[in-house]
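We treat protein structure as text, and this decision shapes the records that our systems exchange. The remainder of this section carries one protein's record, kept here as part of the documentation:
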Amino acid sequence: MKYTQLGQSGLIVSKLAFGSMTFGSGNIPSVYKVADNEAQTMVDQALDAGINFFDTADAYADGQGEVILGRLLRSRRHETIIATKVGNRVGSGLVQTGLSRKHIIRSVEDSLTRLGTDYIDLYIVHKTDPFTPLQETLEALNDVVRQGKVRYIGYSNWPAWMAAQAVQMQKDRGWAAFINGQMYYSLIGRDIEHEITPFMQSNGIGLTVWSPLAGGFLSGKYTRENMKDPSHRLSGFDFLPHDKEWGFTVLDTVQEIAKAHAATAAQVSVAWLLAQSHVSSVLIGASNPSQLTNNLQAAQLELTTEEIAKLNLLTRPQPLYPNWFTDMLLDPQVVQALK
């Protein structure tokens, strides 16, 4: 296992992180389906592989994800990093959601109880909240850090402009700063390269990746023919938008590269992410131990420079304005001189 600092913090995290979203049972049976015994096996697998970074959220399986993960890591608590999240609905009450001060303060206490710990290593706001002033959210996050209940803070699924506002506000007020942005990123979902990753790099915020296999699409188990099979996860939980036919074209190339390495499509897809310099850690989850074993092997897979370039070109996102205009007007003489 390889390790890195998360952003500009002193927090050392494994390049692969373990995501426990599948733990427990609930109203999305294609996602929440891992019972305690298999969860124990997979956590042990992750620890044995050198993973020290574990991710969950208060909303996963109505809190079961935190309960199970906390119990399984209790004997190794001080060796491990636990990230959990706040923001999604956790009850029927009007205020049991979002990023208000009320909800954050209560949610921290509830997560600590479910995890069975007295501190959270990384507390992540799970989404934006257009109904709460940004200052209120950031001040509440600063308070839970100052109280010692949270060590570090991060955000997930925020646009670059909002994160930029937040970072400046944190600097101006001397508040606890974001060290992490957890974003969706995959070979067939590279939107964050337009604005988000350049912002994060320039501000020393570490990128962690959720859904590196695009909801399982890049695992290689789906074909053009079996996409509607009710036993498959994507038949009931297909929420990541992408052109499926183009996705299968990408997958054909991924499979070719996998064959050359005696690897799997999932391993190649994760290895491509690990090869990106702006990626700190990639969250891998699984529905069973054999699936996790397969995903863990991505840490040992080294793609060639040519293979990475081929995948980069094949999946390169279309430039947006003003990015394409900026590139078009780069002075060629200066570019050549600085090569």
Notes: Residues 3-337 form a domain with the TIM Barrel fold (CATH 3.20.20.100). The mean pLDDT is 93. Strands lie at 3-5, 12-14, 16-19, 53-55, 81-86, 120-125, 150-156, 178-184, 206-210, 279-284. The chain has one domain: 3-337.
